[in-house]
Structures are given as C-alpha cells and as structure tokens.
Amino acid sequence: MTVLSRRHWMGATAGWTLAAPQGTAFAQSAPTGPVKIIVPYPPGAATDALARLLAQALEGAVGATFIVDNKGGGATQIGTKAVAAAAPDGQTLGFVDTAFVINPGLFGDALPYDTLRDFTPVSLMAKAPLVLVVHPSVQAQDIRAFVALAKASPGTLNYGSADMGSAPHLAGEQLARAAGIRINHIPYRGGGTVLSDLLAGHIQFGFTTVPTMLAHIRSGAMRALAVTSPSGLLAGVPTFADAGLAGVDARPLFGLVAPARTPAAVVSRLSDAAVNAVQKGPLRERLQEQGFTPLGLPAAAFQARIATEIAKWREVIRAGGIKPDA
C-alpha cells in the first residue's frame, strides 16, 4: 500500500455544514482507522494519479487517513471485485474510470460483480477528452480530410489501443460508425507500446488523453485533428461535434464508489467532501492544469450517469461485435 490503469488506459481541503458537530456523523457511521481507496490499476496511471489527489483532499476535509491501495489486473476486475466484496463500513472505497461502465457490455455475465447492484456511487470527480492524433506521414490536415482519406482507401488506416474494449478502442468504433469509414483496430498489451508505434509511424493514428500526447503535438511529432470534448490545452483543435461527428463522444470518467449498503450518512459526507473539493478547492485548478474537466457531481447524479454510460457502451460493443481478449 502507498499513502496518499485495467489496461484501458492518470491537495485540497473542503468544508461543509452539518447538523451534527464537525466529525460526529462520520465517527458514528464508520469505524475508526484509515480509509482505503482501491484503484484497479498499478501505480502511475491516470486513474491512480487522480485517486491520490482526491485522497489528499478527502483527508483534509474528513479528518481521517486515506490510503490508496493499487490492485491492478484482470481488465480492472481484480480491484473492482475487491471493492464489491469489502465490508460496507465506510473504510473501503474504490476509485474507478470508464472501464467500470464499459465492462458490463464487454464481459456480460462473466463479470464477477454486478456494476449496478454491488456498488454505491459516491461522486463523479472528472472526465477527460480524448484527442485523435495522426502521424505526420498521414496526408490529412484536419478531421474532414482524414475521413475523406479513409473513404478513399478503406481499411488502410490503423490505430491501436492498450486493450480490446478500452475507451480509445471504442472511440475508434464510434468514429467508424459516425463517419461511415472502415479503419483497423490493433490491440496492444499496454499503452506505452501503442505510443511508441504511433510515434514511429507503425500505426497511422490513435486516440489518447490530451496530457499523454500534448508534448508530441506541440513538437510536431503528432498532429491533432479533433477532440471528443473541448480542451483548454488544445484550444485550436475542433471537437468532433464541430466537424459533424457528434457520435464520437468517448470521454474517460473518473469517480469514487463504495460497496453496496455502505451507510447513507457515510456516503453523504464523503460525497459532500468530494464535490466541494472538486468544485471549489485547489483540486479544481490541479485537474484543469493536467487537462481534465472537473465535474464534482454528487452521488445521485453519478448513479444516473453510470446507468446511462453502461447502456451507451453496451450498444457500441454490440454493434461492433467486440469481444474481450481471450
């Protein structure tokens, strides 16, 4: 364990008003001791980095110790299952990303937990736009030219992602459907290899988070054509919606969940603390500086978003005939 990415893919204080005295509700609703936040990735990925930022914010706001526990593997299933199986006492939480809402459509009944039944949403922290980048050898200066090129030479443009069913993979599926083009997806075993092959021109394009690719875009090693939602770090790059491809909207989400049946008072307090930290505290600026879009949505809004996202990605997976890695 360390104090204070599923291969799918990176301190503040907050205050609030309670009817009971400061600290009383949390102390009465959960045992004393450190609160563990399970991240279903190894250390160093985007999801892990965001979990650590949130842990710092919650530690200052709630007055308890928060520990990030990395449990990677199994396409995030190992760590996520550990959250579902934990005692619902407020001392074990999970920090999840888009894999959480993609996996139900990808794995179906083979998933070792029920995403809607076995968890209590706490707060949706942030989202991150994906950017479509091409190697400079690709003769397309904008997204419309890219689509025209793909239509002129079907099946000749290749892109990669760190896993079948990852957010970048499904963004490509959305692009193929929205633009009516045929492109080839190549699954890799890790995002680092995808980046290396993209920079070398072994694959022609890819979808990545903005911070991952920003330096390469600015150096000219990669050309950014479109983003799935506006990015302050790429102000001159249009969105897919601007280009008439509104169906391309893959945006990794990051949020905090608890095991089902965690006491409502604990969930409410944690949700309030997380929302305040993201919406009002220094954490908001940290997120924006790193290319994320702060959300800070409360538990009920996060729960509704989970259901909507599961349905959306299930349809994309069904339409694309996508199967998980064997």
From TrEMBL:
Pfam family membership, one: TctC
What name does the UniProt record give this protein? Answer: Tripartite-type tricarboxylate transporter, receptor component TctC
Which family, according to the similarity comment? Belongs to the UPF0065 (bug) family.
Taxonomically, which superkingdom?
Bacteria
